[in-house]
């Protein structure tokens, strides 16, 4: 019997929610070791109702516990003080200011409150207006093994998106402003990954000159990689190790306060890579938004090491001239001449090529709306 023949769908449990669901975020919100569900739903214009379904002892869920509502820009998960409890960071529907849903769950509390709204502990600047949709993240960007806060920003009535980075300060028990910057026009959602395997987290996102709001399709698109300009991990036998230009395994969690993300498109900037899809791969349109949802759902560039060489590959939903939407796998390879992502001399951090062999089944899909990468049969 093949692996696919062994796969069986077993219905588990069904939960009926009274309002239109906008998002579901699984997580252990009461620290009992079981998976709960945080449900965001549309109750009023300009707000998301937040409900938490705690798992019970028999595989189902208890009646929901209500939490303070958020603005339509959905809050994201953080651990604001390192207590291993899931907090939320988002925007208040009352004044559109950034607030923290602090996890205060106590099983003996007769009020059964999960979150308490407080001001986030930010120092050094004013938090920006969160874009909607956003690519906010709780992720280590300076290499100290403490998750930092990345915010995507957009002022009201503006098309320009910017970002802020707030680094986690263990000494001050808060988040300190590090930098801000401006994104290229026509950008999509950001994916974070270590694209060049140097031990630092990079950004990957698409940009398009125009996006059809009815179809969600972007035209004249490019793929952008912004490498984290940070002291990397030492390679075996590296001379840089002797000079202190890299981090040894013993210094894995060493903070680099001088890390940068350089969006300069100057040809001398090796830390920013823009790949014109039509020139490199023969197609220039991407599915940027899934318009079957209301509001449309951003389609994220997917990252996964499909070739098991240690370097992340990229999957995008390309759109043909006839409108077919198919997944394209872009294999990460060493730079050389005439490779997308490398300069005219064949230099660069990583190059990419379209995978054709063995992808015929995937390419026959013509109505793709998204891609998920997972190891179903646990053969790695």
TrEMBL record:
Keywords: Signal. It comes from the Eukaryota. One of its GO terms (cellular component) is plasma membrane. InterPro entries: FG-GAP, Integrin_alpha_N, Tip. The keyword Isomerase does not apply. Signal peptide: none annotated. Pfam families: FG-GAP_3 (PF13517). This is T-cell immunomodulatory protein. The lineage of its organism: Eukaryota, Fungi, Dikarya, Basidiomycota, Agaricomycotina.
């Amino acid at each position: 019997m093949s692996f696919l023949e062994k796969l069986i769908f077993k219905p588990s449990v069904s939960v009926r929610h009274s309002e239109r669901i906008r998002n579901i975020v699984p997580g252990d919100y009461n620290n009992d070791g079981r998976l709960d569900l945080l449900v965001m739903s549309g109750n009023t214009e300009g707000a998301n109702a937040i409900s938490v379904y705690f798992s019970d002892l028999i595989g189902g869920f208890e009646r929901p516990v209500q939490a303070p509502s958020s603005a339509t820009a959905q809050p994201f998960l953080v651990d604001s003080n390192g207590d291993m409890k899931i907090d939320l960071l988002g925007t208040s529907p009352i004044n559109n200011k950034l607030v923290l849903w602090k996890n205060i769950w106590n099983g003996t509390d007769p009020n059964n409150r999960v979150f308490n709204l407080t001001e986030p502990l930010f120092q050094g600047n004013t938090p920006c207006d969160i874009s909607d949709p956003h690519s906010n993240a709780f992720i280590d960007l300076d290499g100290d093994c403490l998750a930092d806060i990345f915010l995507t920003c957009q002022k009201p009535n503006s098309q320009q998106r910017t970002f802020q980075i707030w680094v986690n300060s263990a000494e001050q028990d808060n988040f300190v402003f590090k930098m801000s910057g401006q994104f290229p026009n026509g950008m999509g959602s950001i994916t974070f990954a270590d694209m060049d395997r140097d031990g630092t987290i990079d950004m990957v996102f698409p940009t398009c000159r125009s996006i059809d709001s009815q179809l969600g399709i972007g035209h004249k698109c490019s793929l952008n990689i912004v490498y984290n300009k940070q002291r990397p991990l030492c390679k075996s036998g590296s001379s840089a190790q002797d000079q202190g230009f890299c981090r040894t395994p013993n210094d894995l969690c060493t903070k680099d306060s001088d890390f940068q993300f350089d969006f300069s498109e100057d040809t001398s900037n090796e830390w920013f890579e823009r790949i014109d899809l039509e020139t490199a791969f023969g197609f220039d349109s991407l599915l940027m938004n899934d318009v079957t949802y209301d509001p449309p759902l951003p389609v994220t560039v997917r990252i996964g090491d499909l070739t098991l060489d240690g370097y992340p590959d990229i999957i995008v939903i390309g759109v043909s001239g006839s409108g077919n939407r198919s997944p394209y796998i872009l294999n990460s390879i060493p730079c050389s001449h005439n490779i997308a992502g490398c300069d005219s001399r064949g230099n660069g951090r990583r190059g990419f090529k379209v995978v054709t062999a063995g992808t015929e089944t995937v390419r026959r899909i013509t109505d793709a709306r998204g891609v998920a990468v997972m190891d179903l049969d646990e053969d790695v």
